[in-house]
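Amino Acid Chain and Its Fold in Token Form
===========================================
What this section holds: a protein sequence and its matching fold, both as plain text.
Structure line: whole-number tokens from a learned vocabulary of local backbone shapes, matched to residues.
Purpose: to set a sequence beside its fold so the mapping can be learned.
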Amino acid sequence: MSALRRKFGDDYQVVTTSSSGSGLQPQGPGQGPQQQLVPKKKRQRFVDKNGRCNVQHGNLGSETSRYLSDLFTTLVDLKWRWNLFIFILTYTVAWLFMASMWWVIAYTRGDLNKAHVGNYTPCVANVYNFPSAFLFFIETEATIGYGYRYITDKCPEGIILFLFQSILGSIVDAFLIGCMFIKMSQPKKRAETLMFSEHAVISMRDGKLTLMFRVGNLRNSHMVSAQIRCKLLKSRQTPEGEFLPLDQLELDVGFSTGADQLFLVSPLTICHVIDAKSPFYDLSQRSMQSEQFEIVVILEGIVETTATIGCLLETLGNQEEDTNMTAPRITEIFVYLLLFFLFSQTSLSPILMKGA
């Protein structure tokens, strides 16, 4: 069993089974039960590979009122289906309310019964029921102006209501259309054309043990003032005995030298040197594979086409699909002709992994 663990690593556990599925079945003289490798269940990530944080806010109590104090941001953060529902509902209620106000004016003045009298001047011409009042409001609000329904100078309350309608319509348009515009211009989908390598590798570079991964841009438009940061999420216990779940440590990816400021025209390899200041300095290959930690990569920059600031989260960890200890060297890509099918390719590099 220990030989199997050394061969396949700690990501598998050895169980004993039989071919019939009941009990243990000897395989012959001197042979034990049949052994089968079963993959361990993968741990849930703090940050998914698509950048979504697996954090839910609960038991807020009276603090939920804070969302209403910042209503605009709350609407922007809602899902699209709720945004569209609020958009349609707000306009529908506003239109029905204003149409009702015009109908009330016509009703109180008696215009509904005298609309067809030849020498009578109503408040609004050709408004004699609620549908016609609704059509008059839509024509004025949308600035269509067919000319069939119009306000006369014999109705001061209608002029005041028309001014109120114009102001209210401008406020509703500015709020809702601005909300939809901000939501559509958010650079979240810009992350779909930013690539991270499938594996993070550890290898020697410039004579130093280095953790490396690659980031690339698929679009011709650049990320202006792009900056990359890495956070190590790991639970630890202080010397005083306090347990800190998901303690955040900064991984140096070139802050002191300015290497964290990226000119992301071609794919770049991001390096973290494992020296005495690195959290990985005291970890061996086996302990690194068994430790529970997660590396969150934060790429920030200004989207060139929309001049909006974008933030992309990518997570790495000690999952089998994230780390690659047996092929720890990233294959270089020809710079002038970007062959993206080589983006995540790795090549073998002889290296002795040991603790410091």
